[in-house]
TrEMBL record:
Name of protein: Peptidase
Alphabetic keyword roster: Membrane, Transmembrane, Transmembrane helix
Compositionally biased tracts (Basic and acidic residues): 112-139
UniProt feature, compositional bias: Polar residues: 140-155
InterPro entries from the UniProt entry: PepSY-ass_TM
Matches recorded under Pfam families: PepSY_TM
Amino acid sequence: MVKDKRNYNVFFNVHTVSGIVITIALFICFFAGGIALFYKNINNWEKNHLSQEIGHKAYEINYEKALETVKNAGYNMQDRNFDFSIKTIEGEDYLSITSRVGKPKASGGQEAEEKVENKVNSKEKDSLNTKNQSDESQEKQTSVTAKHTAKQSGFNPKGNIAMVLDLVTYKPLKNRPKNDTPRRGRGKPQELGTFIYHLHYFDQLPVIGVYLSGFVSLFFLVAIVTGVIVHWKKIVDNFFTFRLKNSLKLLWTDAHTALGVIGLPFQFIFAVTGAFFGLASLFILLNTLVVYGGDQKKFIADVAPAFVSVEKAGIPTKNQANLNTLALNTKKELQLGNQYSLTAKILNYGDENARFIMSFRDNVGKNFYGNGFIMYDLSNGAILNKKAIDAPNYDLATSLETFRKLHFATYGGYFLKLIYFLLSLLTCFVILSGVMIWLEVRDNKKYAKKHKFNRNVGALFIGNCMGLFPAIAYFFCLSKVIPESPARFSIMEQSFYIFWFSYTLYAYWIKDLHTINKHALFIGGVLGIAIPVCNGLTTGHWFWYSLQKGLTDSFFVDLAWLLVGIVSLLVAGFAKRLVSKRKKKTHRPLKPVNTTGA
């Protein structure tokens, strides 16, 4: 019995410590992550774009013409690796072509070529409205003069390539001038939904952010396992127990246990997948060293066969297979419809060992096996390797794809994403209730010396967590109020952090948890209702007209914020201060003493 009691205390303390340490970070992961499930819809809402049809006829892309455009720009094509992907910019699809060759020697105009990124800069977006509409003769004339102007401007034909082409004419967008506003750092988002998506794994913290999210998920997994062990014997009884009229400690404990059990499978999935994605590079390193004996190529061949590297033969090919023919053949080989996104690669272009790899991912989410690829030998057009879209291959690559679908809810449509979102909010409540239990346990004479410290910690924890709700609502309002400019998103981002930090300081100053929660819900509710109003006033897209205009995402985002705002105001208005029975007894007035002897 003593041993069982000791083990119970050990697991209970581990559960408490592991949960408290990661409170703020875990709350951010789930709250921002729940919203980030709809980040593409939020991006469409921000830009007032029509909802795009899922998928693209990637097999109908004219790869030969696209490469001809690159060649006419003056680049050296031999032995290059090319990456192709579909980019949606300003509501239209474009073909992105990149080729990274490492850092070349610095030359006059090389700064613009140094970084090859997937994001298209603001000037490239502006150029969508000023596309070159010249005829074919002008295009040929441009290709002739390209090399001459390249030499004069310090252009490096062997340097990095980053081009975006029109999918009809295959003409490039105009290049950004050197004196243009510098681009933001690599990987930093320029859209509201994408920013929230990056926030949920702390990508705003350079280098360490993603690892921090991985370790937070790992601690969360420990908290889940120890929590189940602590409550295992009474997990069923406690689930149906909700003591509203007892002490606050029991109230928060019952809420923590019952809601924690409801979301347990969901939380376990996110703890495992979150730890994997956050610490993926460490897992890859360990697997490569232990399982594959340090053979990185063999590891990549098993995990991501579509991304293998191929050694150059050093012999130029005489007859290279037609890329367009191979792309059309892929439609039959993989039984493709029009519901799959594409990335394509060419390895060692113009070499005897040249490869053409097309990868497809299911955007609809019908099953866990919604990814496929095919690899061609460009010297003869032969298929070297392939995986059909719906092929249930139980290999490591498919396992990783399963992790991705479980984490991002891409296997059940919007209904599943809504369930994930609600479970994320429920988990946020479980996190906050855990903090409340920790505070209530320490609100007695035993911890009198640490009362001030515990009160400060509670105010910071609750204030930072609850402050994220109105801060994000404020961010949404700013996205409609601040006009377009190169510094627009930087201003929005800084304002978001200032608002969030200010509310945390306010919470630390007042140190009253009831007021902190109530004010966060009230401010968030007001801003939530203001979001569709700001959208309507600045763009004219009132949500009751959005569906008629085809702005489905705009309609649902506005409606969702309106409902969230109303519910938040109702909760803030009707919420009563909870007082424990112990404090009620302490403040109970004493009965007058009878001195008459009667």
